[in-house]
Amino acid sequence: MRWVHRVIAAMVVLAAGMGQAQAPAKRLALVIGNGAYATAGWALANPPRDARLMAERLKGLGFEVDLVVDANRTRLETAMGDFGAKLKAAGPTTVSFFFYAGHGAQKDGANYLVPVDANATTMDRLRFQSPPMQFLLDDMIAAGNAVNILVLDACRNLPLPDGARSVGGEGLADLGKPQNFFIAYATSPGRTAADGGGQNSPFTTALAAALERQAEEPIALLFSDVNNRVFRATEGGQSPEYRDGLVRAPRWSLAATRDAPPAPATPGVEFRDCDVCPWMVVVPAGKFMMGSLETESGRSRFEGPLRQVTISRPFAAGKFEVTFAEWDACVADGGCLEEDGPWVPEDRGWGRANRPVMNVSWQDARRYVRWLNGKVGGRAYRLLTEAEWEYSARSGTTTPYPWGDAVSRQHANYGKERRQGYGGFAGGRDRWESESAPVGSFPPNAFKLYDMHGNVQEWVEDCFAEYSSAAADGSPIDNRACSIRVLRGGSWIKPSEDLRSARRSSARPTHRDHISGFRVARTIVLPPAP
């Protein structure tokens, strides 16, 4: 019989007629990935990875996520029952999302989610070992949510010992188009979908990418794009579909509806939004000349031509580079995930705590930002744009370094000069010869930002490109197919010329090493002019 690998269900709730004065909608998610099936021949590699990836995306969209991996029947039924009770208690404005990855089946139009301890030899027996999806669907309906979204990813064969392949048709049954429900299928109902040869299924890969980049789009438009991506990725072998019954909220999107907590807009003010959030400093609006003069020692052609950039609104920048302690808080909270689970960067024995996190890629930095936005709501946190980084690093100066024309070990942790060979170096205030320094070990610049130069080089949002394609307002150079991203600021092992405010470095967005980290930015929403 053809079976379902994955049932994603995203049940999202938006009460009709909600006013501006009402409290923001609560966001709840249950994410389940079953892959470690005990019965020989049933095991699946991707569902736990798919579940972890979706949990990360949902946290970045402001959901409180319960993640369940490799659930037996008791655990599966308990998780589903508890989730239904949570939805009912949370009220009709709750935004909810249910994701299931694992084997599933149908009989006589009813869909069943298969726990990892199932061992039936026939479909008739299997349905008694597997919770009916209808039970959860009934709880969702009873909760009275105005918008409910189910996404069903039907997958793989699961041969029963008697050779049966399907009862009542392949894959999962079509659930129709109930009012106030949006139901998306990874492939046409009654057919199977591919698990894929990578770390995630084609459908989860496409959906995760869409949730990262397109969550603000109306949900039907987002899933239309997902469907097209899956169709292309499988060369027409898998054709997703959806049923749209959102008559009361036709343009609802998965983007967080909450505004981030208010932030100060006075330059120099320090704040943080939560007890595990980075300390932020408000950077003033202003204009500056970006790049370097042709006469500047160590200059690269990619630092020109010199151009004026206008930062028209204040924003907040991380007071320090993101630390190991802040990254580890993300991991402990179930964020900062890659395909196989949480990413715990190696510290080379230098210590964690207030050392800048390293061995993180541009993609890792974006994962941290998504988690941070999930902690505070909204989409306020992000990486600095390249223009914002240089503006912040210069902090009103025009010299190669913010402290003057010459490099200084009183101001930064950096390495040997190129003529002296590659490696670390200690001298003056710089006591860290072959390692990073704890953040804040050197004086801040005029904007009250620490370690903009040296220590670890910092990922920014931009693609690496000629300045001819850059905007004059400091917006990032970006495109979705970007293969090279920008790093700024030099590091503990780089020579002095790499610490200059205009210096640009680059690497692939998946690259990790012991000299690269990042700091975050936060958008500040100004009140409307009177």
Going by CATH, the homologous superfamily of the largest domain would be paralog of FGE (formylglycine-generating enzyme)
Known CATH architecture of the largest domain: Alpha-Beta Complex
Distance between the termini: 66 Å
Query: What oligomeric state best describes the polypeptide chains here?
Result: single chain
Which term fits the overall shape? Answer: elongated
Largest sheet descriptor:
8 strands, mixed
In short:
This protein has 530 residues and is α+β, with helices and mostly antiparallel strands.
Structural commentary:
This protein is of the alpha+beta class. The protein folds into 2 domains: 4-244, Rossmann fold, CATH 3.40.50; 270-523, Alpha-Beta Complex (paralog of FGE (formylglycine-generating enzyme)), CATH 3.90.1580.10. 21% of the residues lie in helices and 19% in strands. The protein is built from 9 helices and 21 strands. The chain has helices at residues 46-60, 73-90, 123-129, 133-143, 202-213, 219-233, 324-332, 362-376, 386-394, and strands at residues 4-9, 27-33, 64-69, 95-107, 110-113, 148-153, 181-185, 241-244, 270-271, 280-283, 286-290, 307-311, 315-318, 337-338, 341-342, 381-383, 457-463, 485-488, 505-507, 516-518, 520-523. The strands form 5 sheets. Strands 1, 2, 3, 4, 5, 6, 7 and 8 form an 8-stranded mixed β-sheet that branches. The protein has a 5-stranded antiparallel β-sheet with strand order 9-10-13-21-16. The protein is elongated, with a radius of gyration of 26 Å.
